[in-house]
Amino acid sequence: MFIEELANYVGKDVTIHGWAHNKRSSGKIRFLIVRDGTGFLQTVFSEKDVSSEAFALADRLSQESSLEVTGTVRQDKRAPGGYELIAKDLKLIQAANDYPITPKEHGIEFLMEHRHLWLRSRRQHAILRIRSEVIKACRDFFDDRGFVLVDAPIFTPAACEGTTTLFEVDYFGQKTYLTQSGQLYNEPAAAAFGKVYCFGPTFRAEKSKTRRHLTEFWMLEPEVAFLDLAGAMALAEDLICYLIDRVLNERIEELKILDRDITKLENVKKPFPGISYDEALTILKEKGKQIEWGDDFGGDEETVLSQSFDRPVLIHHFPTQCKAFYMKRDPKNEKLALGVDMLAPEGHGEIIGGGQREDDLAALEKRIEEYKLPKQALEWYLDLRRYGSFIHSGFGLGIERTVAWICHVPHLRETIPFPRLLEKVYP
Ligand code: 4AD
Ligand code: MG
């Protein structure tokens, strides 16, 4: 029996297993807030209803002690969650002494050291439930549209997103890298299955400390055969609308716990604004940013751009030097790549990166040389341009960035159960 099921048990007796979250007393009554992972429940102990042992236990129970409580479910609009339990019995499973995370404020360093316990806190609990919902919605979106899930490997022989953020792994004496993106493997999968996606952890040795970068993060990547840049942009837009809709429908309680301004999310409707890199540059210059044509957007620029719109914005046609080797050139202007980024509003910045892939063998070979990439390790990738080359596009959605935006939390460290950062691999 779980707290989230209580609506079906009004007037009935139930037993809940959980942990003591908080307590207060008022005269001859003790209120114990119990959490069981699915929710928080107010349990009410009256001296007349329970044994003196159970009453005394409710009185002295320390925070996060594990317990078993039995009682009658009562509907009560004022109770958090809408139900409370009129307790009949209480059993201690294990007494937790000096639980480190008390209801007072703690510094971020301390909380990060205790991430394994911090997960139990209301706010972290709400964020990670939303994360779980977002991931489920991602899968549903693609599964319902006939995409095939094709997993990409984690050990890879070559870089996908530039050689500066590679984690090297000694693979039985051979140099390999942790994957930065499943894209290169999604492309052959698209040739085999038409519409595919992969979803898994990706790794980047990000050497700077920012609120938007993890060294290990989860990416959802669709790839579609015979789809061009405009098609990929439309797909990204549909995906985001679907995710927001799902969270608004299924996780409204969690959004309330986070004090999220729901109207900001309700506003996320098609069509999203779409601007070229050049237009983005104009906006940045108007807002006083010193930036030259050809410069990539950094965190500051992303923040400014993302605050300029009331919903996500799609930025397309980047200078080639800002983008990876695999991006197709704009046939109308060789200086531009057919890439797209989606920036989330409210200052959250890039949540999606993708575009149309180079499908011409000679152009791709030239690019691999220019980018000084190991051609041998990419021969298999070139095969796609040798055997039935095809227009294709896709993108990657960063799960943590997306959750950070939906929850409106500033730092990615709260959006993944156990964040990995430049100086953080514990716990
Ligand atoms: O823009 P990126 O680098 O694109 C790719 O990796 C493509 N190969 C994806 C594709 O086309 N299949 O990364 C995609 C997204 C970013 O928009 C961002 O949301 C997230 O991944 N991301 C990170 N999230 C957290 N920490 C980091 N260090 C991230 N780097 C990228
Ligand atoms: Mg990007």
Briefly say what this structure is.
With 427 residues, the chain is α+β, with helices and mostly antiparallel strands.
Question: Your description of this structure?
Answer:
The chain is an alpha+beta fold. The protein has helices spanning 52-60, 108-113, 115-118, 122-144, 183-193, 229-250, 252-257, 262-266, 277-286, 299-306, 361-370, 379-386, 399-407, and strands at 13-26, 29-35, 40-46, 66-75, 83-94, 148-149, 155-156, 168-171, 174-178, 195-203, 216-225, 274-276, 313-319, 329-330, 333-344, 349-356, 392-398. It has 2 domains: 3-94, Nucleic acid-binding proteins (OB fold (Dihydrolipoamide Acetyltransferase, E2P)); 115-414, BirA Bifunctional Protein, domain 2. The protein is built from 13 helices and 17 strands. The strands form 3 sheets. Strands 6, 10, 11, 12, 13, 14, 15, 16 and 17 form a 9-stranded mixed sheet that branches. The chain binds 4-amino-1,4-dioxobutan-2-aminium adenosine-5'-monophosphate and magnesium ion. 4-amino-1,4-dioxobutan-2-aminium adenosine-5'-monophosphate is lined by residues 160-161, 181, 183, 204, 206, 213-214, 217, 219, 221, 350-354, 394-396, 398, 400-401, 412.
Layout of strands and helices, then pairs:
Blueprint: E1 13-26, E2 29-35, E3 40-46, H1 52-60, E4 66-75, E5 83-94, H2 108-113, H3 115-118, H4 122-144, E6 148-149, E7 155-156, E8 168-171, E9 174-178, H5 183-193, E10 195-203, E11 216-225, H6 229-250, H7 252-257, H8 262-266, E12 274-276, H9 277-286, H10 299-306, E13 313-319, E14 329-330, E15 333-344, E16 349-356, H11 361-370, H12 379-386, E17 392-398, H13 399-407
Parallel strand pairs: 3-5, 6-10, 12-13
Antiparallel strand pairs: 1-2, 1-4, 2-3, 4-5, 7-9, 8-9, 10-11, 11-17, 13-15, 14-15, 15-16, 16-17
Helix pairs in contact: 4-6, 4-13
The site of magnesium ion (MG) has 3 residues, from strand 16.
